[in-house]
């Protein structure tokens, strides 16, 4: 297959993709734009994992900072005796964080799947 055909196939996998598949495809397409198709085919999986890790770490740090701020505000309002109608659902947040972490791993898996299949199709 040609480069264009392989990329067309990759894009077509996004037509009915899950969120994590769309994310994996989006990361792959961003790397193809940055490195070029043939260099992307040879990207080291360690580099790819480090890229996902860096993004995950940034998002996680921002979320945790926001979480700490909200919890501190709730505590201050409790100490002041201010009635709060809305409080953070901590168990719901933990479940959402868990799902998010699993989805990131699934996205990275899908990225690596696309890279492997693209290598096979392009080099056959």
Protein traits:
124 residues; mainly alpha; 5 helices
Mind explaining what this structure looks like?
There is one protein chain. By secondary structure, this protein is mainly α. It has one domain (3-123). 81% of the residues lie in helices and 0% in strands. The chain is built from 5 helices and no strands. It starts with a helix and ends with a helix. The model has no long low-confidence stretch (mean pLDDT 92).
Please indicate the count of domains: 1
Helical percent range?
A: over 70%
- Major sheet: none
What share of residues are in beta strands?
Answer: under 5%
Radius of gyration: 20 Å
Order of helices and strands: HHHHH
Structural class by helix and strand composition: mainly alpha
What's the tally of helices?
5
Q: Could you list the spans in which at least 5 consecutive residues all have pLDDT below 50?
A: none
List the helices and strands and how they pair.
Elements: H1 3-12, H2 19-35, H3 37-41, H4 45-79, H5 90-123
Helix pairs in contact: 1-5, 2-5, 4-5
Briefly summarize what is shown:
The protein is mainly alpha-helical.
